[in-house]
Amino acid sequence: MSHRSKVVLAYSGGLDTSVAIPWLREKKGADVVALTVNVGQPGDLEAVRAKAERSGAAKALLVDARQEFAEEFLAPALRANALYEGIYPLGTALARPLIGRHLVEVARREGATYVAHGCTAKGNDQVRFDLSTTSLAPDLEVIAPAREWKMTREEEVAYAAQHGIPVASGPASPYSIDENLWGRSIECGVLEDPAIEPPEEVFGWTRSPQSAPDQPSYVQLSFERGLPVAVDGHRVPLAELIVQMNRTAGAAGVGRIDHLESRVVGIKSREIYECPGATVLLAAHQALEALTLPRDLLDFKRTVEQRYAQMVYDGFWFTPLRGALDAFVTSTQERVTGEVAVKLYKGSARVVGRRSPHSIYQQSLATYSSGDRFRPEMSEGFIYVWGLPARTWAATASHPAAVAPRAAKHRS
Ligand code: ARG
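A: This is the predicted complex of the input protein with arginine.
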């Protein structure tokens, strides 16, 4: 019995991963198990699965991981307000460790010695796939065909034709697009010039703010322990809630992001994102935290959030630090329960109301009207002590910044 090795390939149905199937067979002598993971990207994924078989895969699998993606990856990212460089909600970066975990599971079940992905040598996704799969299974070897072969796009098309792989006819789109529940990312083509405004054609999930309805709309989001559980009073599972928000906010032109991004590999790149749902949910979540969490906790959490976002971006999902940061973030969410009203209007999503049974906002302390319970006589003494170090410092003559002697000097 001939013993051929097996490789599990993360398969999207695009040109790179399709060409990778015969390439892995020929160059690595391996049988290919293609794995397509549904993380909420649009399209007929059963047709994608079938295409892997027609492209020469020994086996082709399709896994619906939408719920798992929402609950185990997007939920913690939302609680952590994770935004890379303060702007990118990390949709692509969060999906990679999930797909990596499925690659490893299938590799175990199939007795494969390799996993493979279609990423090139210049991006972040190779880092995330390589790190997540090898962190879970150090014995597995990763093959990245598009990192190894030296084919141009034209050569790839020719290679596909030779191997009977169907290639979409017509001019190929100049854009590289990645989509999942948490957003859509578009790069390449004219977008490579960061001085040029993205043409309307790159957007797929959002109306242009200009052509969005002239009337504002409102969404009422209910949160429990830092996670959204209902829209306008209707309870919805997280994955569906995100889909619904993508639709509602996208129709109002909300969620377009233009990011001059710093990649892990040192390259700067210009990325366009459409993240209508994430934009609304992150804004609402932060507003509820502001209402329910004290200042020092919010402040410390922000530093954790930045580190968290960077770890996700950098491919360090399956690490003890990320797990420990998650435990911290989860512990902060105990009282982040309540309702937030968001106003959607021509590209903007603004929080216009918030309410919580755990609110630490007290009108009797904040008010400038009647019913004030604050004791104004306490402020002067508080500020005396609070400012004591600064005044002591300033009054110390040996310090060059001391201001007292100046008048005397002018007189002499
Ligand atoms: N720059 C984003 C990231 O590293 C998205 C990358 C994938 N985008 C794409 N169009 N292929 O997370």
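The chain has a mean pLDDT of 95. Residues 92-93, 124-125, 176-178, 185-187, 261, 271 surround arginine (CB under 6 Å).
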